[in-house]
Design brief:
CATH class: Alpha Beta
Number of helices: 3
Helix content: 10-25%
Oligomer: single chain
Strand order of the largest sheet: 2-1-3-4-5-9-8-7-6
Number of domains: 1
């Protein structure tokens, strides 16, 4: 998987891209003026996640397959807990916990097993209105899901 941002991202959006790349053990590509087709050429036949910007903050996640077809679009806002400090987590593989529609889609598109979170793992707890990113049972950050949609072509 490759993570990138919208064309003119805010500092907050670039930061979230880096956090997501560290959490998912994947690469973050600074997009600059590249079009989506150019970004896809860097993805080496893997899925692409584009973090969109809305009024200076991360506002969406859009998932694309290796051919550039949109798979899933999520509108969101972000929450960082008090005393938040992120560290590099690339040594561990994440698991996803959530049996709703959004959890099942994310597990499939991200290639992450849907399993129970234990206290030592990187975990994403997914409900239809939020995604909580946890490490050792502690909340790193939460993405509040405003809405999501699956394009008709992806169904």
């Amino acid at each position: 998987m490759l993570i990138t941002s919208s064309r003119k991202p805010s500092a907050n959006t670039r930061t979230l891209c880096k956090y997501l790349a560290s959490f998912f053990n994947c690469e973050y590509l600074t997009r600059g003026k590249m079009g989506l087709a150019d970004v896809m050429s860097y993805s080496d036949d893997t899925n692409l996640v584009v973090v969109g910007d809305y009024h200076g903050s991360p506002g969406s996640l859009i998932f694309y397959d290796e051919d550039g077809a949109e798979l899933l679009s999520i509108r969101l806002s972000i929450f960082y807990p008090d005393g938040y400090k992120f560290s590099n987590l690339k040594s561990m593989e994440p698991v996803l916990m959530g049996d709703g529609e959004l959890g099942n889609m994310l597990s499939h598109y991200l290639g992450i097993p849907n399993d129970e979170c234990d206290g030592m793992a990187k975990c994403i707890r997914v409900e239809d209105d939020r995604m909580e990113f946890l490490y050792s049972g502690k909340l790193l950050f939460r993405l509040n899901v405003k809405s999501y949609r699956v394009p008709e072509a992806a169904v």
